[in-house]
């Protein structure tokens, strides 16, 4: 099977890593399976160099393990580990909202949140939007909240989770944002979070965000469980 790379702002290794990552999550590459550079290079029609870099990205995301003389092997994924990832991000996002309510708020930072929330609503209302564009919009909205909080550690940890876990990989599948109705609901919920932030109702904003993220987690896990058999634990 030959896989096609698209025109994208991402590098070729990043595109290969994204595609292979989705194949690992959906079970096309099984836990323990060896991934051979030459075979993957032939599938994508590239040299082994970009594949080698893609493997390093996958290793950073904890999707494969690379050992000398043994090569790259797919690591097991469990629903519990994915749930943990959701829960940690939820805790960080809620902490950002709480911190935002406790500290002096900069108007420029609040304006950035407003713009992100408005953009999210526009994406949800666009019939041609996809789960990918909405997922990116949601990530940017939550990131704007974390930045506005002034909590540099939260911002750093959330960025590292994007780069060094399978978080961005799992959202390349439809999951919680699969339908227009689901995207509209999440956009509306984010609007209510913003309304509470704007009026200084910190506990309400945190509670609304937690409910949104819990629902999103449960919906995503249910869809993942329906697509493949995961490791236990």
From TrEMBL:
Entry GO MF terms: DNA binding; DNA-binding transcription factor activity
Transmembrane segments: none
SUPFAM superfamilies, A to Z: GntR ligand-binding domain-like, Winged helix' DNA-binding domain
PROSITE patterns from the UniProt entry: HTH_GNTR
Start and end residues of each HTH gntR-type domain: 10-77
Gene3D superfamilies with a match to the protein in the record: GntR ligand-binding domain-like, Winged helix-like DNA-binding domain superfamily/Winged helix DNA-binding domain
InterPro entries in the record: GntR_C, TF_FadR/GntR_C, Tscrpt_reg_HTH_GntR, WH-like_DNA-bd_sf, WH_DNA-bd_sf
Keywords, in A-Z order: DNA-binding, Transcription, Transcription regulation
Record keyword Transit peptide present: no
Keyword Protein biosynthesis attributed: no
SMART domains: HTH_GNTR
PANTHER family: TRANSCRIPTIONAL REGULATOR, GNTR FAMILY (PTHR43537), UXU OPERON TRANSCRIPTIONAL REGULATOR (PTHR43537:SF5)
Name under which the protein is recorded: GntR family transcriptional regulator
């Amino acid at each position: 099977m030959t896989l096609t790379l698209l025109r994208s702002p991402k590098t070729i290794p990043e595109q290969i890593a994204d595609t292979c990552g989705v194949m690992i999550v959906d079970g096309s590459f099984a836990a323990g399976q060896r991934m051979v550079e030459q075979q993957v290079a032939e599938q994508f029609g590239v040299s082994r160099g970009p594949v080698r870099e893609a493997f390093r990205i996958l290793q950073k995301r904890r999707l494969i393990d690379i050992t000398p003389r043994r090569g790259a092997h797919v690591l097991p994924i469990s629903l519990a580990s994915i749930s943990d990832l959701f829960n940690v991000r939820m805790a960080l996002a809620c902490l950002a909202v709480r911190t935002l309510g406790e500290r002096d708020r900069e108007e420029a930072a609040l304006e950035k949140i407003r713009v992100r929330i408005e953009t999210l609503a526009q994406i949800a209302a666009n019939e041609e939007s996809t789960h990918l564009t909405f997922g990116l919009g949601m990530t940017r909205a939550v990131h704007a909240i974390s930045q506005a909080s002034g909590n540099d550690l939260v911002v750093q940890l959330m960025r590292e989770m994007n780069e060094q876990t399978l978080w961005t990989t799992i959202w390349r599948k439809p999951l919680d944002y699969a339908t227009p109705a689901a995207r509209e609901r999440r956009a509306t919920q984010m609007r209510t979070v913003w309304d509470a932030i704007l009026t200084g109702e910190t506990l309400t904003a945190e509670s609304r965000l937690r409910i949104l993220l819990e629902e999103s987690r449960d919906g995503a896990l249910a869809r993942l469980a329906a697509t493949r058999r995961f490791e236990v634990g």
